[in-house]
């Protein structure tokens, strides 16, 4: 029943763009067995604004390389294909949010900031927990609340009621959505991620970042996005619309294997990288 309701929403979002062209091209190339570093670099360089931002991010403190990386091809070689793909995704998603600005009940710029904040926080946690591919967790954090964008655009009046309910009662948005819409932003985000042919791991991080299904497997990647989202809200990095800071699930913290003594330096690094990332992406 929920799936049918969500399926009716996605086609109705006439102004919501399809997967950004440059990201779609890059994803297809990465699946091609004969794709070369040169060809991939050329695709990124076709969009000068994206290429410039990728180079700015690569040369930022986020990575901390001792020598400046001056061209896209070298950035691809050093960082790897998946990392570059996620950087392109981050720059592309900004264009999606900017199309709507503050014309809805949601301030889209603040939601975009929250998305970047969660991406950075999830990545920092993944690195601290020694996950094999922390760059994949960045993508999950970046896209975790994309369903809210869809709700704000396609169901503006009902979603306004959701936000009012949150402000009046303090309940989590996901509960207010279930009450008023009959489904939540994680489920809608999952539908869009599947439509955009995102990897299964990214789809799972989007779907389960609230850990609402206790019977499902809890991976370290999902745990990183769950905890990253909470830290992002606690630090006030943008706004996902929540009235209160949610409680971190104890199992999520435990599966990451982190100590409480690590929390303060982790949060300091998140704040620093968030400011640098948003400054670069907006430039």
Keywords summarizing the entry:
Hypothetical protein af1432; mainly alpha
Summarize the structure.
This protein has 283 residues and is mostly helical. It has helices at 2-9, 21-31, 37-45, 48-58, 72-79, 81-98, 108-128, 134-143, 146-154, 156-169, 173-180, 185-195, 200-208, 220-235, 250-256, 263-282.
Task: Describe this entry's structure for a reader.
This protein is mainly alpha-helical. The chain folds into two domains: 18-98, no CATH class; 101-282, Hypothetical protein af1432 (Orthogonal Bundle). Helices cover 67% and strands 0% of the residues. It is built from 16 helices and no strands. It has helices spanning 2-9, 21-31, 37-45, 48-58, 72-79, 81-98, 108-128, 134-143, 146-154, 156-169, 173-180, 185-195, 200-208, 220-235, 250-256, 263-282. Helix 7 crosses helix 16 (263-282). The longest helix is centred in the middle third of the chain and has 21 residues, at 108-128. The protein is globular. 42% of the residues are buried. The model has no long low-confidence stretch (mean pLDDT 86).
